Amino acid sequence: MLSRITLLALAAWLVASCAAPTATAPQPTTAAPATRSSPTQAATATAEPLTQPSTVAAASTRPGETATPTEAAAAAVTPTEATPTETAAEEAGVKISLNIEGRTMTATLNASQAAQDFASLLPVTLTMEDYNGTEKIGYPPGKLSAQDAPPGIDPEVGDITYYAPWGNLAIFYRDFGYSTGLVLLGTIDGGVELLNMPGSVTVTIERAE
Q1: Rounded average pLDDT per 10-residue block, the chain, 209 residues
Q2: Residues ≥6 apart with Cβ < 8 Å to 136
Q3: Which of 27, 37, 94, 119 could form a disulfide with 41 if both were Cys (CB 3.0 to 4.6 A apart)?
Q4: What is the pLDDT of residue 29?
């Protein structure tokens, strides 16, 4: 009789033990997501994108704004202004006359430093010898500056030049090739054929009236 009661009590205890987990309700905090943000964090995350447009607007000029004078000056294209030398070259050069044994022809000097130096020596009378059947050469009373001149030129018929290495004036009555050290002073306006004669000639050069 006691053993039956004991067995019944044991069976009841086992049934109660098995039913205990079912009776326990799950805790609400366990089911909640672990990464859920707090209201403060959510508000901060929402407010951050709103600051980006202000940053972009600050980096560029907004519609309706006017550029400052400094910005406008930097953006403006400054027109190229002619230098005094370029302006002088565009104006009429110094007119000179060349009297060759009673016959006269005119010429125009350019605005180079060498041409100005030559004009400062006028009037001058030179004995010009024939050179290579191409030009007449003579020696002015002073040297001319060639500082602003190119290394050389390819002279044409009628060119009045200065050959810096020798210090002589050279007037071409025939075409010639490129020569290093040759400086262009001006051009004869007409009548260059007067120089196309053998031997030397006497030439008086002065400013034209």
Answers
A1: 60 60 45 40 40 41 46 43 43 85 94 96 97 96 93 97 97 96 96 92 93
A2: 128, 129, 130, 170, 171, 173, 195, 200, 201, 203
A3: 37
A4: 45
